[in-house]
Amino acid sequence: MKILSAAQTREADAATLQYEEIDSLELMERAALAFASWFENKFTPQEHVYIFCGPGNNGGDGLAVARILSQRQYHVKVYLVGDSQNTSQDHNVNLQRLPDTITRQTLHSPTDFPPLHPATCVIDALFGTGLNRPVTGLFAALIDYLNNSGSCITSIDMPSGLYTDSQTPAESAIVKANYTVSFELPKLAFFLPQHEQFVGAWHVVQIGLSPAFIATAPSDFHFATTQEAKKLVKPRRKFSHKGTYGHALLLCGSYGKMGAAVLAARSCLRSGVGLLTMHVPEAGYTILQTAVPEAMTHTDRHQKYLSELPEGLEKYSAIGLGPGIGTDKMTKAALAQLLTTSTSPIVIDADAINIIATSDKLKAELPKHKVIFTPHPKEFERLVGKAKNDYDRLQDMKEFCREYSCYICLKGANTAICTPEGTIYFNTTGNAGMATGGTGDVLTGILTALVAQNYSLEQACLLGVFAHGLAGDLASQKVGEIGMIASDLIDHLPQAFIALTTA
Ligand SMILES: NC(=O)C1=CN([C@@H]2O[C@H](COP(=O)(O)OP(=O)(O)OC[C@H]3O[C@@H](n4cnc5c(N)ncnc54)[C@H](OP(=O)(O)O)[C@@H]3O)[C@@H](O)[C@H]2O)[C@@H](O)CC1
Ligand SMILES: Nc1ncnc2c1ncn2[C@@H]1O[C@H](COP(=O)(O)OP(=O)(O)O)[C@@H](O)[C@H]1O
Ligand SMILES: [K+]
């Protein structure tokens, strides 16, 4: 699904009003009802709810929510902030609609701020997507006050003070929400690690914005949905055989890191590949043959490192390399040879990324439209460079992918997949239990398997990263996040693919 900018969200709003022939108040009511339903599922009417409303339509939402929650037996108090001359029309109407039974107070200075307790439920309706400058002055003082109150904060649409789709200036105060409940589509800001402390756990509630507008709106940013991932899966054919599903080659491991090779091999096999050959240093022979009997094992002449390529590279439909290989000179030479001789698509991970990062010559030799890089943030920094903030990092990623006609899966809580055209897809599966050694090696195996089966590189990235995270989510239901290890992901890959192939 697309991610829209703040400006496009306003346009979507206008298109919806026109298409449905409704007025903006009705859309605000829908938004408030959708928010209130989410809120009711989360918080009981025993809670005291303090709603802080800004001057615009975000504040208008807050006022409508106050009315609805009060009807549903919550104890609601409303706090209006700022100049009452500059309020939006829909804000004004919802203020008039507020029943007299609801206490309301205008905050003129910090001395007016109400006492807050950890048990108070704060709803932040100060600013949403209409924020157009840094938050300072009384609003900033209030935001600091809310942030330090220890109360549970739920933001309507956006944490107030956070820009929707561009870097927030350092001087802006920003609400640190526990929950952000946004309308129709998640906002770009939600996917960036630098905003973790502001956005909290985000949820999207539907308000029926025009699907036709969303479908035609241009956007470089997308997020993954289960429905889209399911559409990517190619069903197995009845009369198929192992040759139908490709032959993958994985070059992995070094002395002391043969586990990486085992993890990549096992995940590759669990992702539907027809045949798998492992090329590992000689010391890995017994390990691989014992731990992964389904894979063919080919050994390097070197005992501890990879120093050469296996013969007959052209017979492999995909090659994956990097997990556990180290950065020895001989390994670097073999990698250089691979880049110039291979005609197959290549998934490049871990130390293979580190090797390429140090050499402009190797970068120049990257075959066009044939490479997927899977860096974690540190490897990304080595390969592409250090960015000032997460927005710049996305921009740098687009430029790198365009320059080298490659794909990057920048791994993290919402792995960002970038295509050579500069389109970015954020993954939405996975959990913090996956922050443990070896889970990246599992991803390399999955992607190599999918590319070997003739998925396009883009499809492989989207489906592979989604399935990897889904396996993590299924594993967390069994073993929790704290006790999770990379092998648990492999064990849950079959279930993840079952989930993606059933309606
Ligand atoms: N399509 C949807 O998703 C729907 C969206 N809806 C809701 O509408 C929200 C957007 O509402 P919005 O456009 O009125 O903007 P909003 O966020 O209230 O802020 C603008 C106000 O704040 C002011 N202001 C700005 N920056 C400021 C600052 N730093 N410091 C001080 N003041 C500042 C600005 O003042 P001005 O610039 O005029 O001086 C103006 O008064 C959206 O987030 C969602 O909650 C639903 O109701 C229906 C469907
Ligand atoms: N907090 C998190 N939420 C979701 N996924 C995560 C989180 N932390 C890490 N991951 C995933 O786990 C994997 C870690 O990969 P990586 O850092 O390369 O591990 P390793 O090198 O040990 O194999 C990536 O796919 C990443 O997206
Ligand atoms: K808000």
Automatic annotation (TrEMBL):
The EC number(s) this enzyme carries:
4.2.1.136, 5.1.99.6
Annotated AMP binding lies at 411-415, 440
Binding of (6S)-NADPHX occurs at 57-61, 128-134, 157, 260, 324, 376, 441
What's the superkingdom here? Bacteria
Q: Which SUPFAM superfamilies match?
A: Ribokinase-like, YjeF N-terminal domain-like
Classification via Pfam families? Carb_kinase, YjeF_N
Q: Where is the YjeF N-terminal domain?
A: 9-215
Which cofactor does this sequence's record say it needs?
Answer: Mg(2+); K(+)
A molecular function (GO) held by this record is: ATP binding
Q: Which reaction does it catalyse?
A: (6S)-NADHX + ADP = AMP + phosphate + NADH + H(+); (6R)-NADHX = (6S)-NADHX; (6R)-NADPHX = (6S)-NADPHX; (6S)-NADPHX + ADP = AMP + phosphate + NADPH + H(+)
Q: What are the entry keywords?
A: ATP-binding, Isomerase, Lyase, Metal-binding, Multifunctional enzyme, NAD, NADP, Nucleotide-binding, Potassium
User: Where K(+) is bound, by residue?
Assistant: 58, 124, 160
Q: Which PROSITE patterns match?
A: YJEF_C_2, YJEF_C_3, YJEF_N
Instruction: Mark the transmembrane ranges.
Output: none
Bound cofactor: record note: Binds 1 potassium ion per subunit.
Instruction: Identify the residues that the record assigns to the YjeF C-terminal domain, covering every copy.
Output: 225-500
> Lyase as a keyword?
yes
Q: Does the keyword ATP-binding apply?
A: yes
User: Which BP terms from GO are recorded?
Assistant: metabolite repair; nicotinamide nucleotide metabolic process
Q: Which family does it belong to?
A: Belongs to the NnrD/CARKD family.
What's this chain's function? Answer: Bifunctional enzyme that catalyzes the epimerization of the S- and R-forms of NAD(P)HX and the dehydration of the S-form of NAD(P)HX at the expense of ADP, which is converted to AMP. This allows the repair of both epimers of NAD(P)HX, a damaged form of NAD(P)H that is a result of enzymatic or heat-dependent hydration.
The UniProt subunit note reads as follows: Homotetramer.
Instruction: Please state what the protein is called.
Output: Bifunctional NAD(P)H-hydrate repair enzyme
- Recorded source organism is Pontibacter fetidus
